[in-house]
Write a structure and sequence with these properties.
The protein is elongated. The chain has one domain: 6-pyruvoyl tetrahydropterin synthase/QueD (Tetrahydropterin Synthase, Chain A, 2-Layer Sandwich). It has a 5-stranded mixed β-sheet. The chain has 4 helices and 5 strands. The protein is 34% helix and 32% strand. The two termini are 20 Å apart. It is α+β, with helices and mostly antiparallel strands. Strand 4 and strand 5 form a beta hairpin. The structure holds nickel (II) ion (NI). Nickel (II) ion binds next to strand 2.
Length: 143
Amino acid sequence: MTVRITRNYRFVASHRLHLDHLSEEANQKLFGKCNNPYGHGHNYVVSITVHGPIDERTGLAVSVADLDTLVRREVIDRYDHRYLNFDVAEFASVPSTTENMAFAIRDHLQANWQTALGPNAPRLVDIKVQETKRNSVALSLIS
Ligand code: NI
């Protein structure tokens, strides 16, 4: 018996989306309010979905404590209350679009997945990053 489990995490961060090689008008058109010159914040929600078998002894498919420790260390501690453009290495030269954030979170989690969750770790199958009520990006890691 396998199940999918989703756990939600929240953090706040500020950023500015801007590409130096484009004009002010082009940046404004491309990124809208996220191009405002002095930055702005978002209340982000990251949803992590795993898929795996239920351990018959525990009745669980994932150790929530271990998953929380991993996500806190690799995502929350890295991004929470940061100005992404300056404080976070991966967004120094890459715009912190919701799309790029989803891929960065995938990389950080996958690099530490087995170590954090052990040999019977469920698969990381989906990452969703919600930037605003109207905007979220889902990254599916299974085809
Ligand atoms: Ni923004």
